[in-house]
Amino acid sequence: MRLDQLPLKCPAKVAAVAWDDLAETAARRLRELGLDEGVTVEALHVAPFGKDPIACRVGRMTVALRRAQAHCITVEMAA
Description:
Helices cover about 20% and strands about 35% of the residues. It is of the alpha+beta class. A five-stranded antiparallel beta sheet has the order 4-3-2-1-5. A hairpin with a 7-residue loop joins β2 (about 40-45) and β3 (about 55-60). The protein is globular. GO terms for molecular function: transition metal ion binding.
């Protein structure tokens, strides 16, 4: 499942990130925020009408991601 499809308030682990599909600056920002395989993420809030941004908890931080960036992140639901 992609991060942009993750139901709100459902913790998941990042399984993979399609780094090649992201712009270089976006990929660098996500790496600096610590978003990589194995990190726990949780979608907290989506802008009205399903638009950008998506507020996500990454570890202990809350970050805003564009929908296109979230689409490049594959997650697995936490058991």
